[in-house]
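Quick check before the chapter quiz. The format below is the same one you will see on the exam, so make sure you can read both the input and the output lines.
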Amino acid sequence: MITQNFGNAIKEVQLTAKDFQSSQEVKWCPGCGDYSILAQMQRVAPTFEVSKENFVWVSGIGCSSRFPYYMDTYGIHGIHGRATAIATGVKLSNPNLSVWVATGDGDALSIGGNHFIHTVRRNVGIKIILFNNKIYGLTKGQYSPTSEQGKKTKSTPFGSVDYPFNPLRVALGVGATFVARSIDREPKHMQDMMKKAAEHNGTAFLEIYQNCNIFNDGAYANLTEKETKAEHVIILEDKQPLVFGNNKDKGIVLDGFTPKVVSLADGKYSINDLWVHDENDLSPVRAFILTQFTELDDFPTPLGLFRKEVKPTFEDLVDEQINELKALKKTSTFDEIIGGGNTWTISGNGK
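Here is the expected output.
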């Protein structure tokens, strides 16, 4: 429910998903995971209690970057990799706006990697949704910064020799204050992560695993198929032990800083022995360990909120600095500002 001004009358208005559906035809490949991400955002956006005119979506280049066309809000379709830089400018110019970035693993982590890490380290109050399909989709199937080693594509016909980026680890490494992950086939979970991102005061980074059914179909099949996902996914819940498996008979313990998968069925370990997740942990160490699971054999992939932290945002610090400087100086006229400092007077005779 939001308050809107209609002429001389102020009314309470309840927005719905349809209010965020633009008139543009959605142009993604049939079956693309982007449709699910768009649908969940349109469904959950009315709960943010933000007027449509205060939403801004910013994107770079890639399949995901068509997102601003399909949200009936203000939007900017920027250039390759620069979405977070543009979004920073928007947020600084008007901190009251709810600024969101739609980006892909190539857009954000390749050409946009520098902008991404500096936006995150500054804790700009924007929300970044990274669509990670482990491939370049728009340019027809080249390997991306998140493609697994050995990936055979049009640009790596003999297999990629690169070590892939771990997006959440990159974000934590530069001081992210909100790091989460979801997946396109879990709509309720995705909505929950989007809500939490919206509520966060600072940079909220949400990675969404998204299937590209044309160039990288099945990249996350073990995490989405009914027969396999219970054994390959662990849902992070605050203050809850890390449990997974078809019968909830497996868990994670920490031996120092080394995680181990243990069985709860043989009586050696009980649920009380397991690692209890704390999304408000003051140290990023455990969140870092969680990001490592995707690279360890026989470990489940964590989905959920890895860590959040409360600290001043970039725009708040900039505003505070400006106000402090204003308080130290007397108010100047425009002529005093441009005529102050080093000035020269040029006489009519040129001397």
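If your answer matched, good. The chain is about 30% helix and 20% strand.
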